[in-house]
Amino acid sequence: MTLILHHLETSRSMRILWLLEELGLDYELKTSQRDPKTMFGPADHQKLHPQGSWPLIQDGDLTLPESGAIVEYVINKAGAESWRRTPDQADWPDYLRWMHFAEATLQPYLLMHLVFSKLPKQAPAMARPIVSKVKEGVEGFIINPKVELYMKMIEAHLTGKDSFLEGGLTGADVMMIFPLESVFARIDDAGKKYPNTKKYVQGIHGRPAFKAALEKGGEYKLAPLQD
Amino acid sequence: MTLILHHLETSRSMRILWLLEELGLDYELKTSQRDPKTMFGPADHQKLHPQGSWPLIQDGDLTLPESGAIVEYVINKAGAESWRRTPDQADWPDYLRWMHFAEATLQPYLLMHLVFSKLPKQAPAMARPIVSKVKEGVEGFIINPKVELYMKMIEAHLTGKDSFLEGGLTGADVMMIFPLESVFARIDDAGKKYPNTKKYVQGIHGRPAFKAALEKGGEYKLAPLQD
């Protein structure tokens, strides 16, 4: 049975494509484009699964959404044990922690950052000064302090490292790459503020499997991360 | 070694407290209050872990944040196998999917809903009509459609069920209870629109372990869910 990956351009599903390339699994790729106006993917994707989200994988009767679940599933299917941790391993809690942190803690603030950054441009010209104040207020009170807190933590963690856990890349890196790419694409001065993290992301972008994924996946505005 | 749970009133950590009660593990509870003005928890919590978030558990040398990671850790520590799924079980992918969905997909839109719902009240009186329009625009374009899509999917999934997977409660239920409580607390008419889901939440709120957790954890505005 060949795995099918449903991929949306410039989205979370890029990391699954990268993982599939790293693990050398046989797979079929189905790529969708975003609507240039709304930036949403095609609505008929919901026919495949009611969640209507990307990435989505199909493997025989299984149709599975959710990056975290897909990463675990793909690693297990490939029998790629070094990419996972299990309860008998000392760094299992840390593995789980980064696996969840990426989307549960860091990414929600980046989503809010994206939504608020677009508000002033979309407001009528007369309302723009007020809307800009609202944006700056929420960014200053909630979004920026959280993103900075988390990025400082990551920057300290990644000092001298090219993977989140000891002993090479794991699912934790697959999960973390997307929010980190988003940080460098959207947060001013991120490259200066978080040099270890930048080096880490560039290390992943330099991998042959990542380059192969970039070639196959179509538009991906978040990579490669330039100097 | 006794597990320590760092808990913040009316927050995600309530579900870990509930889980500890269900599993009958020995634990020590340390509860923090929110600042009544900012609604943030105490900043010195960051001394325990740079992420500065709740729930946080300590177990000997281990200090672990992130609900999803903590749920897996606690279940494993208690040897409560029926509360987890492993790769050899057919419903493992589904288990992982709900484990991640709760915080990675549903909760971010509920966080945005909360942030936007507060904007008009916090704006100066003259700016309020414009800020209300912004709020309604983002709610109508992004937040409400997503929350409705996900809640319809959950409502269909929970028809006639009192757990997300067959065979009783698992970590997936522990993860899902918090965003679902948030939906009923914040979304108008949620009780009417999602009766199966409401019944499911009320089922959990009726459990002795949940009631014990409510008594021990201090203020928890999201439960019990009333008729």
From TrEMBL, chains A, B:
A GO MF term: transferase activity
Pfam families according to UniProt: GST_C, GST_N
Superkingdom: Bacteria
GST N-terminal domain span: 1-82
Keywords: Transferase
InterPro entries in alphabetical order: Glutathione-S-Trfase_C-like, Glutathione-S-Trfase_C_sf, Glutathione_S-Trfase, Glutathione_S-Trfase_N, GST_C, Thioredoxin-like_sf
UniProt xrefs under Gene3D superfamilies: 1.20.1050.10, Glutaredoxin
SUPFAM superfamilies, per database record: GST C-terminal domain-like, Thioredoxin-like
Domain GST C-terminal, residue spans: 88-225
Family of this protein: Belongs to the GST superfamily.
Protein name: Glutathione S-transferase family protein
